[in-house]
Request: fold
Amino acid sequence: MNGKADYTTMVDIELESNINFLVDSSPVEQKSIIVRKSFQFALNIVELYRFLTSDKKEYILGKQILRSGTSVGAMVRESQNAESKADFIHKLSVAQKECDETCYWLELMFQSQIIPQQKFLELQTQAEELLRILRSIIITSKKNLNSKK
Reply:
C-alpha cells in the first residue's frame, strides 16, 4: 500500500474494528437499546460530517451537527454512571435537548439543500426514534422518583 488514501483506508478499517470491539465487549448493562442506538446515531453523524466537509466544504454547520449529534450518545453513556436518579434524569434530559438540536440542524441543512433527502430522512428518523425513547425513559424515571417520595 502506498499514498495517503491507502493510509486513510487502513485507519478507517482499524477505527471500525475498534468500535465494533468496544460495542461488542461492553458490559451487558451498557448494551441497552438507547446506548446502542445513540452510539450508532453518533457514528452516522460522524459519517455525515465527513460528507459535509469533504464533498460540500460545509464546515460551520458540519461542526454544529457533529457536536450536537455525538453529544446525544455521550450524555446517554454518562447517564449509565449517574450518581442518583435525579442525575440520571438530568443527563438524559440534556441528551434529549441535544437530539432535538440535531433535528434542527438536519432540517436546516435539508431545507437549504446541503444534504440530500434520503440522508435527511434516514437521520431524522433515527433522531426522532431516539427522542421517543429518551422521553419515555425520562417520564418513567420521573414517575418512579416521585412515587418514592
About this structure: The chain has five helices and no strands.
